[in-house]
Specification:
Elements: H1 5-23, H2 61-81, E1 90-92, E2 97-102, E3 107-117, E4 125-133, E5 139-146, E6 175-176, E7 179-180, H3 194-199, E8 203-208, H4 243-258, E9 264-274, H5 276-287, E10 293-297, H6 315-321, H7 328-331, H8 344-349, E11 356-359, H9 369-376
Parallel strand pairs: 5-8, 5-9, 9-10, 10-11
Antiparallel strand pairs: 1-3, 2-3, 3-4, 4-8, 6-7
Length: 384
Amino acid sequence: MPSHSPVVAGLLSALMLAMALHSLPTASSAPAETNYDESLVGPFVLPDVLAGPDEVPASSEVAWENTSRPHQFKLLEKYVYGRKLPPVPVAVRGEVERAEVDLGSTKGVRLQAKLRLGTAADAPTTSVLLYLPKTKKKVPVFLKLNFRGNQAETEDPGVWLPTGWVPADTRIKGIVDNRATAASRGGLQRRFPVAPMLGRGYGMATAYCGDFFPDRPDGRPQSVLASLDRPVTGDLPKDEPGAIGAWAWGLSRILDWLVTLPEVDGSKVIVVGHSRLGKTALWAGACDERFAMVVSNDSGCGGAALSRRNFGETLTVITERFPHWFCPMLTEYAGREIELPCDQHALLAMAAPRPLYVASAEEDRWADPRGWRDDWLSHPQRQP
């Protein structure tokens, strides 16, 4: 990574704090039974994240990579996120649009490409927005999915509008009848600090999560899962992936394209996400070890927060409100989290030995920042 990485880490910290403060749940939005009292957190024992299928903990990096990591990954597939989806050929539909852009404090190049995900004529597509600094060197790239379309991430008038369904959002203008209009440009641009990052030698890439799975409980038939011959209606297999699995798969398909670009250092693509897309970034990093670093912000329950801690959002709440995010098996452990064969410390461990950056706002009690920070980081398995 470039020598100024600490500066970029500071920028990420400030950015993620702003994200968190913008999305903190209000007291009225949290269920009445939500526990915010540490004295009421029950006792629990974390499963041994180093254990392999024979329950013998790994004692070396080789044992972790060859035995324990695959076993822990399978547990996360079976009980939380569903089976990892297979790759498909990725091709650019039409031409890659390139344009020089003036971002005020810096100049760069904007690339936009519509990627076809698969070989069928009706294969799903996603529109990727990529900004690169003007340099002759290959550059590292931060890659993230977004919530409301690429145009909401920047005021750049040349960025394409999404053509599909977009969730309503009272925080930004321009989402009309679940369609993005030009008035939504830049509504969430503080989450995508293009100019400062380009100025420090990094590229910035994003795509709309709804291209892979519309974020609503009935979004499965319109998702990429149908193109992958996965069931989208009726009773689903217990380990059938949901939206997070589809979104993580989408990040890997974008990576397939990024590594082909001569301007991009394919060995230094960093996956980033906030909230539900923070959960997605963590799972994408677990599924695809090509990502050089994994960054999540306020990923909370089903992300960095331990499920066994009855504090803030719980599996009962999240699986009732967002049943489409996870595999069906997870719902069976709502209210009986201590019986789960795995927990979220295993998800964080999947990043090893790559760098992992987890940000959790101190005041976002809904996401239980203390749970992963104190209970997991102080666990003996994490000691040197």
